[in-house]
Amino acid sequence: MTDDRLSRVFAALADPTRRDIVARLAVGDATVGELAEPYDVSVQAVSKHLRVLEDAGLVSRSRDAQRRPCHLESGVFDLMTKWIERYRREAEDRHRRLDAVLEQMEEAPETESRGSGAAS
Amino acid sequence: MTDDRLSRVFAALADPTRRDIVARLAVGDATVGELAEPYDVSVQAVSKHLRVLEDAGLVSRSRDAQRRPCHLESGVFDLMTKWIERYRREAEDRHRRLDAVLEQMEEAPETESRGSGAAS
DNA sequence: GTTGTATTCAACCAATGGGTTTAAGACCGT
DNA sequence: ACGGTCTTAAACCCATTGGTTGAATACAAC
């Protein structure tokens, strides 16, 4: 569920152009035309990119006559940071635990445990 | 340069299976076979996933006879968090600034500025 | 209503991605 | 040397993606 959301967010940010657009939107809202201007790709291509960003929830759009100003939804960042932090912390904890084990083994070098995984 | 790195990292994490593998590796190193076991895809598919994760710098591998234990490289997370935090902060700052402007406009409702972007 | 601007839709194309199967490589045990 | 295990390589399939061009929509201005 929220899994799919994460997939879309990461996939959206996997494209340099799209990350660039996000960077641009971080400084201020902009229309499709304004966003397309710096790049040498067609406006349609940028429009597609924005659709991807919108589907990922990274960007929202309002209406101003025929213009569609794009706005960066910074809330999604929390989703990512939460995911990242979780596993970063887990990995670091494991590292710490492993170090402790190694220290203990230096103090009392007795049993040799085989296997690659760290069981629960 | 480091741009391509970010692309590969985000692309790697855009796949649920690959995120799952990362989650699994966060609790402890594991071999390809061990990692493949829970899924109903072929071992070769998982091997490919691991290659992607390795190319992204998220996973490193050592040798233990014919086995190739996979290890999560938690350092890459910093790269992501750095990128995310940068734009999150920028967006939030802008939000704060915009709020300030709106407040000021309520105090003295005079000039009506047109345009969608918030110039520096 | 016609012209002009901003944006999207539709059809298409080349490239990539995730999956498969079959075969090969690397290593241990006997 | 031979069979068994773990892993990757190669060739292929089908769906997705990023890009194109050309037409359609939505709106403002005249």
What's the short story on this structure?
Two copies of one chain form a homodimer. By secondary structure, chain A is mainly alpha-helical.
Explained architecture:
The structure is a homodimer of 120-residue chains. The first copy, chain A, has 120 residues and is mainly α. The first copy, chain A, is built from five helices and two strands. In chain A, strands 1-2 form a two-stranded antiparallel sheet. The interface between A and B is large, with 44 and 45 residues.
> What is the strand tally of chain A?
2
Low-confidence segments of chain A, given as residue ranges, are: 111-120
Mean of pLDDT of chain A: 85
The helix-and-strand class of chain A reads mainly alpha
> Pair with the most extensive interface?
A-B, 44 and 45 residues
Q: Approximately how much beta-strand content do the residues of chain A carry?
A: 5-15%
Largest sheet of chain A: 2 strands, antiparallel
Helix content, binned percent of chain A: 55-70%
What does the overall shape of chain A look like?
Answer: elongated
Instruction: Please report the distance between the alpha carbons of the first and last residues of chain A.
Output: 28 Å
Number of helical elements of chain A:
5
